[in-house]
Amino acid sequence: MKKLLLMAAVAVFGFTNLNAQDDEGGQTSEGTWLVEINTGFGESSTSNTGFSLRSIDGTTAWSVGGEAGYFVIDDLAVKAGLGYSDLGIDGIDGTFNWKLGAKYYVASQFPVGVDVNGSSGNDVSPLWVGLQAGYAWFVADNVSIEPGIRYGIGLNEDAGDGDFNVFGVNIGFNIFFN
User: Of 15, 48, 105, 160, which residue is most buried, by most CB within 10 angstroms?
Assistant: First the structure.
């Protein structure tokens, strides 16, 4: 009998808590800020605004960066990102990376995004369009982990004029602020 009462209390508390969250607005509601940090598994785009580390034949390449966004309407955030990358090759300086775009959360759970991104340094300025999709796993009221896939399309000669498109898998870590 005690177990049944305990389970009923947990169910009622959970339902009440869920309704309270809905009344206050969700993580992706209008007016919420988003801070995002990504990993870039497999992504070789030179305009990385996430964290990555690769070592091939003694050459270590790395990048560091982050993104922020603001939900202009429920489930739609306008985002910007900045980063820095170093290919680890002697004589080649690091690059400054940037990203501008939007992220929409379908059913407040499945983020899809589009952005324009690029980098500058070493007398090159590649320009890309990025498309991405994933799943938002909310591990706390204001924290999500977002595994996803990303596809980058080169727009100019420095990015391969569309002949060198980039596919990648990433994991995003997000914090939402009301």
Answer: 48
Q: Residue 147 pairs with which residues in a beta bridge? A: 171
For the entire predicted model, the pTM comes to 0.79
3-state DSSP call for residue 54? strand
CATH classification at residue 157? 2.40.160.20
Strand 52-56 to 76-86 pairing: unpaired
Residue 75 in domain: yes
CB atoms within 10 A of CB 15: 10
Residue of 122, 14, 48, 34 whose CA lies nearest to 78: 34
Query: What confidence tens digit (pLDDT) does each residue in 97-132 have?
Result: 999 999 999 999 999 999 999 988 878 888 889 999
Structural domain harbouring 89: 29-177
Beta bridge partners of 70: 33, 78
Calpha distance 166→40 (Å, rounded): 11
What pLDDT does 165 receive?
80
